[in-house]
Here is the input.
Amino acid sequence: MAERPAIERGINVVKIISVVAPLAGLLGTVTGMIVTFQQIRETRGLCYSIFAQTGAYEDTGMTTIYAGTSANQIGELANVTIDEMKRAADDMSEAEVARARAQMKAGLLMGLESPSNRAERLARMLQIWGRIPALSEAIDRIDAVSVQDVRDYAARTATQYGSALAVYGPADETPLLEALRERLVA
Here is the structure.
């Protein structure tokens, strides 16, 4: 393997996530999902904790939404979460996409500071890409994402990709997964 400059050795460019960076950012930290999660947690009081995270692998990707709630609120929480996710994607602005781009690029650069982060990212890039992309390639991919790309990704997520539901604790009032899938594509 050829020696690369230090700044290029720890690049975190995940095949799926880098192309849809604003959505990944939106689901975890950007204004749209912050507002969405505030609506669910604080305004409606449907849960005591809610967050999202993404993951990418060689042949797939995953978005996980976690929420902690009581058994009697699980049905409303599930439905409102789906409705709010759809609304957030539909209402996404260029400013939110720009913030997500900036956040992804900052994360790339800050991740280069930690040896363990660099090692993890190098391994991930080799696993997913079979190579370590240059920093400029990662930034170009992030900068190329548009609001329409995010909306298209959200539509594909709702209609083409699989979904699952895991419930821990009393689950008698949990909606069926099929009903949640139907709500997602409606």
About this structure: Confidence is low (pLDDT under 50) at residues 4-30. Strands lie at 49-56, 61-68.
